[in-house]
Amino acid sequence: MNAPVRKTTRLLMLLILMLAPLPDLLAEDGYRMWLRYVKVASQEKLSDYRDQIRYVVAEGDSPTLLAARDELERGLSGLLDRTPPFRDSVAASGGVLIGTPESSDGIASLDFEGRLRQIGDEGYLIEEREVDGETLLVIAANEEIGVLYGVFHLLRLIQTEQPLHGIEVLSAPRVELRMANHWDNLNRLVERGYAGLSLWEWGTLPEYRHPRYTDYARFSASIGINGVAINNVNADPRILTDSFLERVQVLADIFRPYGLSIFLSVNFDSPRRIGGLDSADPLDEEVRAWWKEQADNIYSYIPDFGGFLVKADSEGQPGPHGYNRTHADGANMLAEALEPHGGIVVWRAFVYNPEQSDRFREAYDEFVPLDGQFAENAILQVKNGPIDFQPREPFSPLFGALEETSTMMEFQVTQEYFGFNLHLAYQGTLFEEVLQSDTYARGEGATVGRVLAGEIFEYEMTGMAGVINPGTDRNWTGHPFVQSSWYAFGRLAWDYTLTAEEIAEEWIRMTFTNDETFVRPIRELMMESREAGVNYRSPLGLTHLYAQGHHYGPAPWWNGGSRPDWNPYYYHKADEAGIGFDRTATGSNAVEQYHPEVAEIFADPDRIPDDYLLWFHRVGWDHPMQSGRTLWDELVHKYSEGVEAVRRMQQTWNSMEGVIDQERFEHVKALLEIQERDAVRWRDTCLAYFQSFSGMPYPEGYEEPEHDLEHYMMLWRTTYVPDPWYN
Ligand code: BDP
Fold first, then answer.
1. pTM confidence score
2. Any catalytic annotation for residue 388?
């Protein structure tokens, strides 16, 4: 080719590139998460939806109604590939009418009063309705936030290609506070985050309103989240200074239309650290006055501020114990400061002290004697299990034990103990398992979910929190499937009776495709993924086999850390005679903290489900398991099953090439390779270690560790661990 022709060709190429749509706009990089709003694939359904949705009537111009309108416009124009016009009033069939009886004459005329009374401030109804001979789709609610939630519901139905004919939905949340907890530091490092830096750009706030803030609020509202604690529970006192409050105010303004109220994690020692006082004693008048001033100040910036989240006397954080006061004294002081403004205190029950003999017992022993002493606007936030977000824990015995203290759940979405941003582990099944566990408080059927919803005791407030990890990674969560656990958390906080499986299916359809060849196998893959993670890390009730330096890889031999209760040995206690933690009457007797019906089963080595055995019992290596195998053989079986499950997940995923976009396909494919490698390493490390005590041979037909224990011990010392967080 001669030079001028080459030049013309280059120019032409450049022109084509410039005219081509920006690749970023179409990229399947995960940014849109479950709100992708791509055109409905089935022609038949598409034309059905187009028939039913020809125009929209949305009276009112409050920020929340505008957000609802915007979302409807954005969603419908993507899903239907045409934008239905907004009209002032109902004119013909095919209208979508949204609003509250107050904002909309149309809604007011429909006489929904009776049903609206059943669904409170945040609920909504969606219904197909004949009005003067015209067929309409109606979304009605008492408050505007209910309208927004209803809009997301309608869009979800279209995203998942559900029929709208004859639709009748009445939905209201089962718990009041549905809260995201961010463990974001003010320097923008996220504790246990694994998805980039903190979303909150303190450096450019308050001037720059990053569009991501609005998207964050949209995602939150789409799953019914209504509260967000934006900073780490290991709290920096400076969050209470004006310089930060000016910035937080902007976030609050952006979140408000989406029904999302801001909470701040506060440091109990703030009066000393930033207030110039020489005490933080909760019974000291000066200290109490200081906190009131802080509350007044915060509300001057954020009139609908939610309240404080507090980690006190836990893992080195200051608290009331420093002044010989109780957790109730501490919480009540803050509650008193917030009360005049309608704010609440979320007080965490995650406490344990290295001197005590069993970490399992501590939160219960600490808080049950305080039952009834907390202010009405204080709520206790309890992690799902007694230790710390392990792949499997029995439910915390605090659920069902606190009759007079509002008690809420703390789940973890970020995969601190589940492979960070590298392993696929849908947490919906873990959440479901906990929520469906029967506490037997006041008799059979008192599931954790029902306790949380205030159906067993009369709680002043109800709630669920999820520790989520979104950061500046383009897809928000690092591993694309961590999105599914975030989604599941929100859906279950709204309605704990939903199943992990239906939620997984919804998420897949919204996030990837409605193509059945993808939906079914990937749903199964997700449903299996958490159990796989349990099996290749810590089956049969083993727990916390991580090295103290990180929470990623295995180091079961580790017994040299600064605190015994941060060492794996503390949890498994393996020696030649056997393995496990005796929490029955012959041991720490933590089992007594459960109601008798539960305690009886957990205390009996023959009746306890295998999954929990080593949580409560110390047994010999030849202990007979429910399968008929010995404990040792069962351990080999479970560890191997974990690896096999990951391999099945890999196979399933790899067979999906071409069914979804290549971008996310390749990403997950590579991550599964990492996961398989890690699962093998977990299996081999743990089996090599435990065999050094059991002295028993590997049963036939199982892959044996390739190397000796020394090798795995060296590997731990020399391997890069992708976690900046230590302990
Ligand atoms: C543990 C984490 C630690 C948190 C702590 C907490 O390792 O980073 O600060 O929980 O919940 O799981 O306070």
1. 0.96
2. yes
